[in-house]
Design brief:
There is one protein chain. The protein has eight helices and no strands. It is mainly alpha-helical. 26% of the residues are buried.
Length: 174
């Protein structure tokens, strides 16, 4: 049991930040993300003996995604709606220029809102690629989608973000 725990800690725990980031983006709630990651880590530990392979990152992110999907399904079945949370992740910048700081924070919030508004399959692929730096193959493993589908989802997600950003910029100019 002790060797099992040490191996798990050595191979899986380094990916805990990636697991939390994915859970946070999918659930849009820090509290829910904590619960999802806790559930995922417990499931991963229990199923660690069955893990085959050399890369635990896509494996743990798959478990996180499945925990989120199960939680979302359960919440939908029960009819609960999450309460809006206050913005508890204040963006901090080291830049000396307050105007640049405000603009950067505004653009970050704008991009986060656009990403959050993407359909789940596009948002998941984009987060795993751009924020968690997974390869197409690793994203395919994590989502259970063929590599071609992953590539298509990424292209569509990027196009949607680009179009929405451009449309909002055009509205500001008018």
């Amino acid at each position: 049991m002790y060797d099992h725990r040490q191996r798990f800690e050595a191979l899986v725990l380094p990916h805990m930040d990636a697991a939390y980031n994915l859970a946070r983006w999918l659930s849009r709630s820090p509290a829910d993300a904590d619960d999802i990651v806790q559930d995922a880590m417990l499931r991963a530990f229990r199923g660690f003996d069955g893990f085959r392979g050399d890369n635990t990152r896509p494996w743990i992110l798959t478990i996180v995604r499945n925990c989120w999907l199960n939680r979302a399904t359960d919440t939908h079945r029960r009819g609960h709606a999450p309460l809006p949370e206050e913005d508890d992740q204040a963006l901090a910048f080291d830049g000396p220029d307050p105007e640049a700081q405000a603009l950067s924070a505004s653009e970050s919030r704008r991009l986060e809102a656009m990403i959050a508004g993407l359909p789940e399959e596009f948002r998941t692929a984009l987060i795993l690629r751009e924020m968690e730096d997974l390869s197409y193959r690793e994203i395919a493993e994590a989502t259970g989608a063929p590599i071609g589908t992953v590539m298509s989802r990424l292209a569509r997600a990027r196009a949607l973000l680009k179009n929405q950003w451009s449309a909002e910029d055009a509205d500001v100019v008018r």
